[in-house]
């Protein structure tokens, strides 16, 4: 029986050990190092990576280490469940373990020049020699063949799998009568922390996968036919969607063509299932799982029992976002990037797998991260028109999913179905504007928009949404079935699929007009989804938002001069000091109180820091001779801070001085009065400030036109701090989840953080009357609370009992 947690921890340690060994191998084996360096140089040249050689090599070493570990996991699973004959590494019984040890010694006796590494390769070859297992250990592309293990490391790896408990049983036993391979998804996701973060590795829970297939593959089968449908997951990971699709299609073949040979039915079902992933060990796991599932379906007990039969596996390693760029009229310009592939990639073996318009169903769970590699970031921006600003990967993948789906034609052929669970950040952030206004509005027929941010979905820390739709065609429907969230899951359910929010979604999806404590289901006009932001609040929230917005033609932008950040240090750890004695201790006289987002609460500013301020009163940079202690301190870090950039251009090239702040906007600081607000917070916090401070980027400010009085500021302060403003801002602002770190469920909305931007704020509807008197009183009370707080009292002198009272 597999102990998933113990297996994960132990294999993580093995990966770390193998990484050290493989890195040494690259240095010691000249031909290996030269081959990898040549591959890196070409990748850098064609624009496939902007990483340094060291970073790139580190990732390749990790991929190889994981591949070696996974290769032995595959062998152990096969030998423990009788899928191969005699064991190579171990076995679930003492007899099998002893036999594995004896066979190893016999191999060394017969081959005195060979070592433990050769024994592992022999085990891999045993599986690859059988036609149904050939794709599992492809010597051309499998990452383990890219860097050889040392003989000692291979011996240690074999010893690891033969460890026993005090009672003599194997520590890791893979015996499973059902041949359940889902444990491999845990390994895929967590074997390497660095790879997991870089590629945002995340399993899709089976209940989510089944739900999306119900809305895509099932209607595709009904419309196009089980014997015609082709499905792809362009971000297949460890293959959850692929397995689910295979099972459904095989069931259709068994129901509709029971007289066909079982192997033929399996082959036809597998032939319709396609997957691509950029991670080589993700696709290795996906292939293995499909092979095991096909064997289970065939009722054969082993790999060899399949004889010469070959399973058609359409699972490719590569970047699904990269496609051929437009060549010249005669195709004479070679697209070097599209022609390039890493040694671990095999898209060339599946030439049509990413053909646009090929698939009747496209499903998946794309990564939500921002691409840090600058070269790839710009490449995706060039290839996908929906990319804008600091976009997340969810944007180009949204476009790619629909491009892969079958397009309706003039002869009446229907469009393909698309379904995905993705981050909801695009709905309310600036980078999602083009995706919504240009792509979803003009090229897509959305059919389902389902808010899943309140549901408990294991591993999904980012608030999510399920989107389903079809390529644009003449049969566009006017309404989009929409599930609106009301409350989040009150606690972590024992079974995620049985969570109250998820169960409400499933129960109400086909009942438009239904309401529960958790969600509302409505049919919204598609025009609602043609412009941002999308608000998916249930319980009447959408209607209330419309009432607020329609009650006034005036917006905040018509009354203010600006809203946004005033300054960015570019090096907070150096320029920001704890309030009090730190500046005096460093002999720094030029400081300004610094307001950050967390300082802004309840009509008052509290717990301010000091900031190093190398500017004169007119906000021009001070000379070095004018700033004394600042010059002494900053000079020690001159090399580091001189490299700061402003909008991608080094500050020095912009004519700035090396000790300045990275960004400063004097026009916003010269006018004393400001309304500052918390950029990320649970609720709307706005505070009136009288001047003399500087505001961090987490505390943007609102400025009114020149000549505005304190009373003018107070009038708007009351409105912006109102519960109406709070409600409206939450409808249009990005939900960052619990504690601002993501997280899709909470029983208390006071724990949910939002990102309040100046851009969104300018669209706030203004009322006909302003609560000036109430705002003035609340502002005064806020200042009094701060004035009598412990910090303020202590700052005036020794906090005696009488003074504290």
What does this structure look like?
The protein is an alpha+beta fold. The chain contains 30 helices and 26 strands. It has a nine-stranded mixed β-sheet, with helices on both faces. Helix 1 packs across helix 7, helix 5 (116-128) crosses helix 6 and helix 9 crosses helix 11 (240-256). The model is unreliable at 740-745 (pLDDT under 50).
Features:
805 residues, alpha+beta, globular, 30 helices
Question: Biggest sheet, in brief?
Answer: 9 strands, mixed
Helix segment tally: 30
Q: What separation lies between the terminal Cα atoms?
A: 67 Å
Mean pLDDT: 90
Q: Which stretches of 5+ consecutive residues score pLDDT under 50?
A: 740-745
- The secondary structure category is alpha+beta
Number of strands: 26
Provide the spatial order of strands within the biggest beta sheet. Answer: 3-2-1-4-5-7-6-8-9
What's the overall geometry? Answer: globular
């Amino acid at each position: 029986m597999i102990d998933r947690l113990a297996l994960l921890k132990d294999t993580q340690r093995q990966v770390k050990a193998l990484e050290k060994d493989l890195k040494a191998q690259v240095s010691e084996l000249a031909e290996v190092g030269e081959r990898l360096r040549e591959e890196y140089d070409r990748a850098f040249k064609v624009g496939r990576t902007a990483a340094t050689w060291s970073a790139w090599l580190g990732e390749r070493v990790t991929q190889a280490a994981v591949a070696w570990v996974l290769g032995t996991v595959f062998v152990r699973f096969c030998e423990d469940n009788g899928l191969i004959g005699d064991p190579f590494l171990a076995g679930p019984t003492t007899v099998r373990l002893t036999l594995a040890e004896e066979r190893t010694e016999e191999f060394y006796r017969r081959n005195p020049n060979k070592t433990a590494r050769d024994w592992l390769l022999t085990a891999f070859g045993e599986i690859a020699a059988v036609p149904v297992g050939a794709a599992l250990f492809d010597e051309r592309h499998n990452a383990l063949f890219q860097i050889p293990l040392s003989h000692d490391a291979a011996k240690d790896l074999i010893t690891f799998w033969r460890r026993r408990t005090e009672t003599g049983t194997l520590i890791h036993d893979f015996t499973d009568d059902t041949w359940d391979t889902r444990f491999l998804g845990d390994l895929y996701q967590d074997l390497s922390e660095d790879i997991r973060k870089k590629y945002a590795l995340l399993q899709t829970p089976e209940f989510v996968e089944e739900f999306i297939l119900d809305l895509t593959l099932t209607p595709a089968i009904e419309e196009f036919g089980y014997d015609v449908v082709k499905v792809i997951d362009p971000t297949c990971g460890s293959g959850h969607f692929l397995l689910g699709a295979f099972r459904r299609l095989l069931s259709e073949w068994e129901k509709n063509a029971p007289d066909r040979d079982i192997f033929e039915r399996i082959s036809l079902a597998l032939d319709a299932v396609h997957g691509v992933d950029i991670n080589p060990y993700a696709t290795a796991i996906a292939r293995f799982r499909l092979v095991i599932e096909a064997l289970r379906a065939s009722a054969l007990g082993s790999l060899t029992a399949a004889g010469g039969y070959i399973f058609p596996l359409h699972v490719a390693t590569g970047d699904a976002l990269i496609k051929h760029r437009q060549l010249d009229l005669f195709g004479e310009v070679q697209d070097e990037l599209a022609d390039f592939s890493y040694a671990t990639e095999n898209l060339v073996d599946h030439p049509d797998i990413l053909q646009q318009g090929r698939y009747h169903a496209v499903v998946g769970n794309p990564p939500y991260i921002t691409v840090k590699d600058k070269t790839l970031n710009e490449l995706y921006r060039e290839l996908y028109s929906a990319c804008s600003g600091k976009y997340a990967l969810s944007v180009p993948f949204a476009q790619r999913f629909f491009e892969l789906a079958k397009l309706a034609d003039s002869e009446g052929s229907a469009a393909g179905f698309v379904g995905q669970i993705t981050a909801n950040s695009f709905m309310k952030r600036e980078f999602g504007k083009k995706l919504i206004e240009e792509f979803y509005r003009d090229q897509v027929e959305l059919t389902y928009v389902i808010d899943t941010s309140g549901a408990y979905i294991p591993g999904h820390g980012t608030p999510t949404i399920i989107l389903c739709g079809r390529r644009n065609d003449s049969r566009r429907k006017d309404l989009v079935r929409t599930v609106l969230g009301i409350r989040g899951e009150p606690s972590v359910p024992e079974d995620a699929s049985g969570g109250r929010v998820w169960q409400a979604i499933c129960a109400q999806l086909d009942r438009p007009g239904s309401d529960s404590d958790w969600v509302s289901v409505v049919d919204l006009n598609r025009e609602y989804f043609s412009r941002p932001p999308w608000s998916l609040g249930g319980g009447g929230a959408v209607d209330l938002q419309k009432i607020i917005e329609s009650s006034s033609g005036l917006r905040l932008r018509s009354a203010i001069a600006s809203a946004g950040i005033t300054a960015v240090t570019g090096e907070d750890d150096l320029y920001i000091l704890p309030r009090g004695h730190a500046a005096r201790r460093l002999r720094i006289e030029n400081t300004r109180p610094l307001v950050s987002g967390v300082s802004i609460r309840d009509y008052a500013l509290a717990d301010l820091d000091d900031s190093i301020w190398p500017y004169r009163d007119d906000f021009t940079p001070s000379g070095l001779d004018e700033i004394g202690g600042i010059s002494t301190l900053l000079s020690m870090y001159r090399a580091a801070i001189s490299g700061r950039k402003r909008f991608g251009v080094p500050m020095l090239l912009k004519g700035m001085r090396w000790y300045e702040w990275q960004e400063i906007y004097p026009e916003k600081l010269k006018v004393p009065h400001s309304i500052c607000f918390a950029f990320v917070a649970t609720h709307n916090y706005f505070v009136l400030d009288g001047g003399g401070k500087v505001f961090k980027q987490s505390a943007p400010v609102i400025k009114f036109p020149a000549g505005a009085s304190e009373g003018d500021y107070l009038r708007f302060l009351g409105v912006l701090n109102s519960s109406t403003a709070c409600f409206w801002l939450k409808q249009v602002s990005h939900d960052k989840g619990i504690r601002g770190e993501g997280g899709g469920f909470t029983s208390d909305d006071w724990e949910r953080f939002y990102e309040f931007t100046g851009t969104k704020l300018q669209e706030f509807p203004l009322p006909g009357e302003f609560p000036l008197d109430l705002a003035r009183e609340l502002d005064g009370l806020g200042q009094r609370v701060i004035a009598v707080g412990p910090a303020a009292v202590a700052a005036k002198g020794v906090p005696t009992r009488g003074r504290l009272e």
